[in-house]
Specification:
5 strands, 5-stranded parallel sheet, globular, 4 helices, 104 residues
């Protein structure tokens, strides 16, 4: 049996974060969620996670800054950006900074 993939989930909306964590856990993933972007970046290590899912609009470090800092630590880790406030410009910017995908 293969070990479960490890997902770092970052969203400042605690209720949404917990709901996504529950769904992903039910699907067999190991999920560590963060509601503070600074804490997530500090806790990130390439050997601890296989995927990062991050909101874009957050206080403190926004998702694009989180993306840049995580990619600086681990250029190959896939990072999926999520947002309810997407624009074409924002999507292009995220993809240019190394996002694997953008979900709205």
């Amino acid at each position: 049996m293969m070990p479960a993939k490890r997902i770092m989930l970052i969203d400042n909306e605690e209720g949404l974060c917990r709901m996504m964590e529950a769904v992903l856990t039910d699907c067999g993933y190991k999920v560590k969620s963060f509601t503070r972007s600074f804490e997530a970046v500090e806790q990130f290590a390439p050997d601890r996670f296989d995927l990062v899912v991050s909101d874009i609009k957050m206080p403190g470090l926004d998702g694009l800054e989180v993306l840049q800092r995580i990619k600086a630590k681990s250029p190959d880790i896939p990072v999926i950006m999520i947002t309810a406030y997407a624009t074409v410009e924002m999507s292009i910017q995220a993809l240019r900074k190394g996002a694997h995908d953008m979900l709205t």
